[in-house]
Amino acid sequence: MLLQDCIRRSIAQRAGAVVLSADFAHMASASQVARVLARLVQAGVLVRVSKGAYAKARPNRFTGQPSAAGTLESIAAELFAKLKIDVQPCQQVQAYNAGQTTQVPMCASVSTGQRRITRKITVGQRTLTYENHTCSTQARH
């Protein structure tokens, strides 16, 4: 059986929408896995959302082009869970959920606390942004 067939079957059997290239490290070398994943992106099976991170694809019902099988928020949440990165909703979402405002937050943003994250996550035309909160009590004089 070809490596592409093995990876395609493994992707189909996974419950989540996010697939990491590291998930297939036991099957072949990193360069072989990268080539197969690139072919699967071209075939419309996967959509690349970040470096080494892919989402399952489904055809868009309007254009017929492959698009991610989920929203940016759901894919980002699943990706951060797989990478074991703890993120919280941004301040705008927290205020909306607490009933402090009626303005619905439109941008996709998460709070990383004091952790610095530079991973760019893009689904379609939308990109995830990060809020970084530094502790003001540790200011230097």
Concise description?
This protein is an alpha+beta fold and 141 residues long. Helices cover 30% and strands 21% of the residues. β2 (46-50) and β3 form a beta hairpin.
Primary descriptors:
4 helices, single chain, alpha+beta, four-stranded antiparallel β-sheet, three-stranded mixed β-sheet, disordered C terminus, about 20% strand
Description:
This protein is α+β, with helices and mostly antiparallel strands. It is built from four helices and nine strands; from the N terminus they run H-E-H-E-E-E-H-E-H-E-E-E-E. The chain has one domain. It has helices at residues 3-13, 30-43, 72-82, 91-97, and strands at residues 18-20, 46-50, 53-59, 66-68, 88-89, 109-111, 122-123, 126-127, 129-131. Strands 1, 2, 3 and 4 form a four-stranded antiparallel beta sheet that branches. Strands 5-6-9 form a three-stranded mixed beta sheet.
> Per the principal axes of the C-alpha atoms, what is the gross shape?
globular
User: What Rg do the Cα atoms give?
Assistant: 18 Å
Task: Give the N-to-C terminal Cα separation.
Answer: 65 Å
Low-confidence regions: 135-141
Number of helices: 4
Order of helices and strands: HEHEEEHEHEEEE
Whole-number total of structural domains? 1
The biggest beta sheet, please? 4 strands, antiparallel
Helix content: 25-40%
- Report the strand count: 9
Please, what is the average pLDDT? Answer: 85
**SS strand fraction:** 15-25%
Structural class: alpha+beta
